[in-house]
Design a protein that fits this description.
Elements lengths: L43 E8 L7 E8 L2 E6 L1 H5 L7 E11 L1 E6 L1 H9 L1 E2 L5 H14 L6 E6 L12 H8 L4 E5 L4 E4 L1 H6 L12 E5 L5 E7 L3 H4 L7 H17 L2 E9 L1 H12 L6 E6 L2 H8 L4 E4 L4 E9 L29 H14 L2 E6 L2 H13 L9 E4 L5 H10 L2 E4 L3 H13 L10 H6 L4 E3 L11 H10 L19 H7 L2 H6 L17 E4 L16 E6 L2 E5 L4
Parallel strand pairs: 1-4, 5-12, 6-7, 7-8, 12-13, 13-15, 15-16, 16-17, 17-18, 18-19
Antiparallel strand pairs: 1-2, 2-3, 4-20, 8-9, 9-11, 10-11, 14-15, 20-21, 21-22
Helix pairs in contact: 2-7, 3-4, 7-8, 10-11, 11-12
The protein binds zinc ion (ZN).
């Protein structure tokens, strides 16, 4: 049978559908005809293996793109037939899927991390050499910040001292976080600037390590680290711009075509707008406005749902209702099982919450509330329900980590989107049972239950406030219920696993819906943006425990290659 596949839904061409479902290597597409006159000339044709996540044509071998959108999908011969003289051809090696999105990530925090000295896996000599090199290139007196050292890898495995840093750092203050962020190694210059001496007492919940003469050695633990936080320089606009760029480039390398920035202030939103103006945004950004200034600014104006062909949107307000489960800051109805008088933190009260929900609705903003503990989730749902929020407004609860059965049903009834992070299973498997106890542990990270209840779901990572920011980790963790490191091998509460197909949809169509972008993003379909991610193998045929070994080959946003592993 001759297959002709020119699908042109955009121009509402006459469609005759004819699905041919065949074996894995061959094509299965929809036959469709569009008038040749209305067919735009492709700027570029991509040739390879595409899994579209569009049930009408699940697999194709070529895609034609014009002005950033998909104009045809089909066999190589059929799509090639549309080429004009100027049409470029790009062959992809690997398996292309709709572009991966992260529905909850923190670009600036990631950029800050990427901008510091990365000391992971280095010996002490290598660490000191890296600091010495940084001291040579830093401006006079400039700070040197870094992190990731672990004395456990050193010979001998003892904690380092300020004096060792002094020998290589000259006039520069140096502050280096340990790999777990629970202690910091500083030089004598920092001890002096922070006025930490033999007479300084340990702060509550913190410790200043001392030698036999009570002099600080240069290691500050937990709350003592705040003594340094207070004196490190605030990042300049140029610093923040650099951090955002570093993060966006990392996202492209991770195969992300779209990210939801879970907390952008006005300055960062301005940086996104500048990058967009210069054509230098490599990833679509759905920014949630966070902080007094940003929230006040937007509630006095209007949403910006589409700046630059879907590259940037500001149409949601972020609120943080409680803390995190690990530090017992998540707000729980009943106290923590391992701290019987602690209920967690309430960072926004009900009255303020109701006021912001109402103001946001009047201006047409979505509200995305961080809520981790069951009490915070209940309060968010109460506010949405009492405020009359409709499902069309797609209000979101970020994390939704501990959710009761009653609230699960309310998510569905009210049409609230759950924005969840499958990579959390790594840390939760280590201590969530201690925090909430046997009777509540089945309320934690209940991905499968949310899907079965028909709640709209979007996956993200919360990186760098989690173990991994790559979408490959999200896929792996959602399917196996292991952490990003593959532990525990049997999976943690494995009944909450989802299959590969579902996980991929929650990483593509899920975030698109949560950002009102489902007409443009989420599957490889004619008329939608040509955003796709090429990975090293077909995830449907990789054993689940090996999903985390998949690698990113290429990332494409609006038909533009933003990352190509073959050119790395
Ligand atoms: Zn977050």
């Amino acid at each position: 049978m001759k297959q002709l596949h020119q699908i042109e839904k955009m121009k509402r061409g006459l469609r005759a559908s004819h699905v041919i479902l065949t074996a894995f290597v061959t094509l299965s597409t929809t036959l469709a005809f569009a008038s040749h006159q209305s067919q735009p000339t492709p700027d570029v044709i991509f040739i390879g293996q595409f899994l579209t996540l569009d049930p009408e044509h699940p697999q194709v071998e070529a895609m034609a793109v014009s002005a950033g959108r998909i104009v045809a999908l089909g066999s190589k011969a059929e799509v090639e037939a549309l080429a004009a003289k100027a049409t470029r051809r790009i062959h992809i090696s690997g398996v292309a899927l709709p572009g991966f999105a992260d529905a909850h990530i923190h670009p600036e925090l990631l950029g800050e991390q990427l901008d510091r000295l990365n000391l992971r896996g280095l010996t002490k000599a290598q660490t000191l050499a890296k600091v010495a090199a940084a001291a040579r290139s830093a401006p006079p007196g400039g700070w040197i910040l870094g992190g990731g050292w672990d004395q456990g890898f050193w010979q001998p495995a003892t904690f380092p001292t300020a004096k060792e840093l002094d020998a290589v750092s000259g006039d520069h203050p140096v502050a280096l976080d340990r790999i777990d962020w629970h202690s910091i190694w500083v030089n004598t210059k920092v001890l002096a600037l922070a006025k930490i001496s033999d007479t300084t007492s340990d702060p509550e919940g913190g410790q200043i390590w001392r030698d036999a003469a009570a002099m600080p050695t240069g290691i500050l633990v937990d709350n003592a680290m705040a003594l340094v936080d207070g004196i490190t320089p605030k990042p300049t606009h140029a610093d923040r711009d650099r951090h955002i760029r570093l993060a966006l480039q990392q996202f492209a390398e991770w195969g992300l075509t779209s990210v939801h920035d879970a907390g952008a202030d006005l300055e960062v939103i301005g940086i996104y707008k500048d990058l967009l103006k210069r054509g230098e945004l490599p990833v679509r950004v759905y920014a949630m406005a966070l902080g007094d200034l940003a929230v006040r600014h937007y509630l006095a104006s209007r949403p910006e749902p589409d700046l630059g062909s879907g590259m940037l949107a500001v149409r949601s307000i972020k609120l943080v209702l409680d803390g995190a489960l690990g530090s017992r800051g998540a707000e729980m109805t009943e106290p923590y099982s391992d701290a019987p008088v602690v209920h967690g933190l309430q960072t926004v009260n009900d009255a303020d919450l109701a006021r912001i929900v109402s103001a946001a609705r009047q201006r047409g903003f979505q509200v995305n509330t961080h809520a981790i503990g069951d009490r915070a989730v209940t309060r968010a749902l109460n506010a949405f329900e009492k405020g009359g929020v409709t499902r069309e407004e797609r209000f979101r609860i970020e994390h939704a980590s501990v959710v009761t059965n009653d609230d699960l049903a309310r998510f569905r009834r009210l049409g609230i989107v759950a924005s969840m992070q499958p990579v959390f299973v790594g840390e939760y498997s280590r201590w969530a049972e201690d925090r909430v106890g046997q009777s509540r542990v089945h309320w934690v990270l209940r991905t499968r239950d949310f899907l079965d209840a028909g709640v709209p779901l979007a996956f993200g990572t919360d990186y760098p406030a989690s173990d991994a920011g790559s979408p490959i980790a999200t896929l792996h963790c959602a399917v196996t219920r292991q952490g990003a490191d593959g532990e525990p091998e049997a999976g943690w509460y494995g009944e909450q696993r989802v299959d590969v197909d579902t996980a991929l949809r929650m990483m593509t169509a899920g975030p698109a819906f949560a950002a009102f972008q489902e007409k443009d993003l989420g599957s490889l379909t004619v008329g939608r943006y040509a955003d796709f991610t090429v990975i090293s193998a077909n995830p449907y045929s990789v054993p689940p425990n090996d999903l985390r070994t998949l690698t990113i080959r290429m990332t494409v946003v609006a038909g533009r290659v933003t990352f190509d592993a073959s050119k790395k």
